Amino acid sequence: RHGHELDQLPANALVQSGPAIPEWHARRHALRWSGPVAPEQTFRLWLLGPRSVSLLKLLAVLAAFLLAARLAGLPLPRPRRAAADAALLLPGLLSLTLCTLPGPVRAETGFPPPELLKQLRERLLEPDACLPHCASLAAARVALARDRLTLELELHAQADTAFPLPAVGGGWQTMDARLDKRPALLRREQGRLVLLLPKGLHHLRLSGRLPPQTQHIDISFPLPAQTARIEIVPGSDWHATPLPTGTAIHRLALERTPPAAAENGSKHRTGDRLQPGPLPELLRVERTLTLGQQSWSVLTRIQREGMNLAPVHIELPLLEGEAPLSATPEVREGHARILLPAGQRSFSFRSRLEIAPRIALVARPDSLPAGKDGWYEVWQVKASPVWHLRHEGLPLTAMADASGHWQLTWQPWPGDSVHIEVLRPAAVPGPTLTLQSLRALARPGAEHTRHELTVQLYATQGETWRPGLPRGAQLQQLVIDGRERPLGQQTLPEIPVTPGRHTIKLAWTEPTGAGWLMRTTAFDAALPTANLHLQLDPGRNRWILFTGGLPIGPAVLYWGTLAVILLLAWALGRSRLTPLGSVQWALLGMGLSQSPAWLGLLVAGWLLALGLRQRHWPARAWLHNLLQILLVLLTVIALLLLFAAVREGLLGRPEMQVSGPAALHQAMLEWYADRAGPELPRGWILSLPLWVYRVLMLGWALWLAFALLGWLRWGW
């Protein structure tokens, strides 16, 4: 029951659900150094934002165009000073430099590959071939002088390993441990001390005190000792059992020799004869303090250590703030009167302990009087996770019980003390309900828009999620963990959430259909949002012109292409190679922009070839005839390509070069945000009906037909 109290949290304890972790990954770049890198070496990254990168790309395109115009001999506005002519080369150099930089769409895989890293990791963590026999105990020396026992071990290790120390009985405590005359690093695992032993030959020295009541010492070696030696100070009352010869030594035993005669001993002198007498009683007092999150208690156990079953009476001091819960034992002036009747070996009682910031455990100096009944104490402390303990005084004997559960243990001598400071750290406030991901899909129709939303929630306790639908929305479906819930009203009800992870799906309609401006839902999640995916399906009958709303989302790249077409049209209109002006070149380029780029370049090359034919034509007959044939073939190909472009423009769909997450063939537009507030940000698109595009293409086709007649007459 008390173990359950320790594990139980306070009724008002709120376990945080933690923040949601973004799952989106962008491009990765590997950083490499050709030489060795020092541990203290640092580096700095200079990063440009999206706007700066866009400005640099625009300047690169403009610089490339100016350089091409300058090399082609086109008339350009000249600056007032002649020295400024050299500045025209700087944009060209800048453009060439930027063109050599790696493109943004290429992702560097990096080296080494994950498979090689996995092999290196396995090789690095491969266990030593000597396991589990990497350490051995070559020799052991045991030195005993009255109340102090010293162990000296010669250890051999083939690799860095953990060496279990010998187990010594009789209440012996390790007070000093030195490896090669330096403090040794010890660790307690499952009630046994373990030494971190480096590779090589080492000498370990362990020393500690023995309780005065110890009569027998048993030393067990986890690894057998090849040789052993026992040294006992002359005049001591200890003797050792004979050591085995010819075999490894697993165990050593030492016994205390009973004195021949002593005052108040096992015998007393009557005249000239020794008569047997009773031995004083020795009791073991074990105090177990249980610091629960709401109440503290003390369990005191008194047990006989010897075989004497005579009546015994002691005055046991209680702890400060301790009050026994039963009528026995009798309490007088802070002491419990403990009486063990004849034949009774043990007695226990439970007490209530007041919650206080400090606990003092003190062993009475006169608890073991010479020739009289006495006791020795063992202190154990168990604490709930809500408490933080700091102790000073006597060193710990153990930090866990036999089952491996956390428990502080001390075995004091008379006069020893331990002072424990008990702190209750304040709970860090945090959410108990986390929205880990949200995916919203909008499908606009003629008069209504259907919205579908999927939410991943994680709760540490029972909660109620209260999201909000947009004004005028009508709830159509509610699914919680794959089970559809009945809807009793059109508005969104409060959704109960039990502890754990849950998937909630919602569907509703809004009384707004498709229009020139379409936006994602205005849903109120009532919680901070992470991994937000907003999707919008504009349909195949819409002509997308612009998009926006979130930094990460679809982008219409056509307008950048159109800007380049207009710049080229302006340059070609000033070249005087063709009768086409800048406006005609611009109209031709905009119409052909919906076709592949090579098609537009071929048509432009055909017109330029007709212009060069009039100005520069070879005088030789065979070359003249060959070029005529080639020009006729080029004319036929250009006319066929123009017919294909007109057909594609009238029957196909506009190619606006929409790029971004899930923007495949403009079937679905998606925006992403790693974190957002309760009110979702909204993505938007500006579009026109598809028939507007068809009408414009029809007008372009009619203009092209009339213009083509004039171009053919000019070329003929």
Task: Tell me what the structure shows.
By secondary structure, the chain is of the alpha+beta class. It folds into four domains: about 120 residues, Immunoglobulin-like (Sandwich), CATH 2.60.40; about 140 residues, Immunoglobulin-like (Sandwich); about 120 residues; about 130 residues, no CATH class. Helix content is about 20%, strand content about 35%. It has nine helices and 41 strands. A hairpin with a 4-residue loop joins β15 and β16. The radius of gyration is 46 Å and the shape is elongated.
What keyword list fits this structure?
single chain, Immunoglobulin-like, alpha+beta, 21% helix, 716 residues, elongated, 9-stranded mixed sheet, 9 helices, 7-stranded mixed sheet
Largest sheet: 9 strands, mixed
What is the annotated CATH architecture of the largest domain?
Sandwich
Count of individual helical segments: 9
Percent helix: 10-25%
CATH class type of the largest domain? Mainly Beta
Shape: elongated
Using the CA coordinates, give the radius of gyration.
Answer: 46 Å
Q: Please state roughly what percent of the residues sit in beta strands, choosing from under 5%, 5-15%, 15-25%, 25-35%, 35-45% or over 45%.
A: 35-45%
- State the low-pLDDT regions, or none: 99-109, 260-272
- The separation of the N and C termini measures 106 Å
Q: Which topology of the largest domain does CATH recognise? A: Immunoglobulin-like
The overall average pLDDT, rounded, is 81
Tell me the number of strands.
41
